[in-house]
Write a structure and sequence with these properties.
two-stranded antiparallel sheet; 75% helix
Length: 323
Amino acid sequence: MTAQTEVVDRTAEGTRSGARSRRLGSRLWADRWVYVFLLPTAVLFSAYTIWPIISSWYYSMLDWTGLGSDRSFIGLDNYLEAYHDPLFWSSLSITLLFVVVTVPIRVALALAAALVLNNPRLPFARLFRTALFVPVVTTTAIIGIVAGFVFDPGGGPVNSFLQELGIVDEPIDFLGSPHAALATVMGVHIWKWLGITLVYWLAALQTVPTELYEAAQVDGASRWRAFRHITVPLLRPFTVIIVLLTAVETLQVFDLVLTMTAGGPFFATNVTEVYIYSQAFASSSPRLGYGAALGVLFGIVTLVLALVQAVGLRYVQRTRSAT
């Protein structure tokens, strides 16, 4: 009796498996055109994202200049060299300093602008929004080159303006001084990407019900009290995501730094991406293997921030569902 039951169960399970396979095949065939149209994207994503990542891991274990076929497998030696490389740690500290300084300023300025531009009674609000967003869609390399002329100590408009007002007696070498170069690049970066953070805040403000402000106004609450007791609590979950998104974006400053200072002067603006580029390509004796190892390490740092972002997103979802 038990043997017969086992045979029946196996037969039923096989029947169910066959039915599931047929249903899966039917669904795949019914959606065949979806996969056909997805195929170019999948091929390009594999060729330009997946394969470069895998090849970087492989190259990071080679002693290779990137030219010719003369290469040797050295295992983790490049990673050990990076661990003892003071310039790598210096570049990483400059990158993190860049994030720590610019992110709070950019988030705060964008929030202030969003609170003003979110007012439906403000005239020309759309024009101001567009004006703040134009730098975002402008090529970063072009902005970096133009900024070099703008901050030029030999007749640049910024120095000329400061001298005409009597603020300074001599021109300031904004991009040639180790003490001013990093702050200047930070300022240009904040101006360049302020618009995208503004969009984040404007989207978040759209979720705040206008009825709450109207009720607060009827109760005699001032704008400050309405902002403090209505806007801030409702925007708190979005703040986590906006800060993390801005931080991840700020790690990618290669093109701006390269065109403005190329990592100088005296490595004052030598962020990690520029240092990787200099080791892998720009050096007189390029070291693609070592540059790939540095890129993998920097990718791990970015991945950690992405994981923090995922945790923050889950926090936002739990907070919204609780309210």
